[in-house]
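Fold sample X.
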Amino acid sequence: MHASGEDRMRGETRLTAEEALRSLGISLEELNEMLRLGLAEPTAPGGSEFTVETVIRLQRVRRLHDDLEVDVLGAAIIVDLIERLDRLEAEIQSLRARARPAS
């Protein structure tokens, strides 16, 4: 795992394709298929590095696929919806915090 100066400023750690494969427990062919399906993208077009966030997302997709036997595209949709709900809940909490009168 490594982070460039620009990545550190954004708090973004990148994994090489090999590190991502080890973390996901999949083959290069499986990763390429996930990329072909648009389930994730490398940090740069044609690149071989992935953000930790992307690898975590793919882990969630794999878990839904493996544990619940949801097809990969269905699992990706579920993960998208969960991520959207998480963002909306965080936004609601932020708005509530700002709306509270100062004591």
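Fold sample Y, listed below.
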Amino acid sequence: MISTMNRREFIAAAAATTAGGLLGAGGSFAGKLVLFSKHLPDMDWRRLAQNVKGAGFDGVDLTVRKGGHVAPERAAEDLPKAAAAIREAGLDLPMITTGLLAAAEPAAQPILSTAGRLGIPLFKPGYYKYDFVDVRRELEKAGSDFRALAELGKRHAVAVGYHNHAGYLGAPVWDMARVIDTLDPKWVGYYFDVCHATTEGGDAGWKIAASLAAPRIKMIAVKDFFWEKSARGWKTRMCPLGAGMVDWKGYFRILAAAGFAGPVSLHLEYDIPGKGAALEDNTLRAAAADLEFLRARLGEAYGPRASAERPR
């Protein structure tokens, strides 16, 4: 946890930023700005909630997967406890991140039925892989498994958002679009990631992918990157929001035009220095800085809060 002095400074800075108009800058955006809990793995649920709240977020994107904040095999027992700790802190829990790939998995029913009972509206599944032996057959198998998983989610009133993660099936969006387009848009859509869309598609490719997915985007992941040449060749280097190649202004214009108002999950995939408590402190500071950037870009695309424009 943040040290006593640092924590006071951190909360004071966050409060000052909010009072200075940070919330107003993106105030007309109705979605929840949440922090991906993966980045604070050693915090228990209560401490996680307190620190995420202190950083200025609206809620948590909670990991319910192997090595996450809730172990899949203990979802029925522990997810209600985690949800209670998060909500008692005044935060929302609009989504969970899982590793689920099929409805037949032992953890699928407990996770989704518990999420449904708790009123958690969205979940992210795991990642399907191409073996590059017969990609058409591999896509058909993944599509079949995903349909059954989506149907299980629907049964428990939990919608699924498919993550277009670079290197996995569905990264170009087009291959999974042929599956998703056949399913009920109320319960099935995209967990769209513009960073990975830019990695996969470059300048025009991300725009095509975002425009294709926009009507059915359930939630989004936000992160940034740039290409870097090393001794081993070109590779992606993750970085803070605004320091990379993602066209945030153009992207949020597309989302605003589509009326997107779902959860926005902030990811901190870049290197953050420190160990133990120092790493947690630095992670929260990085999250607060990215959140400020995020709110400003949302404000530009969605417009200022109407109440802020009225004379006082």
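Sample Y note: The beta strands are 33-36, 59-64, 92-98, 122-124, 159-163, 188-193, 217-222, 224-230, 233-239, 264-266.
Also: Residues 4-309 form a domain with the TIM Barrel fold (CATH 3.20.20.150).
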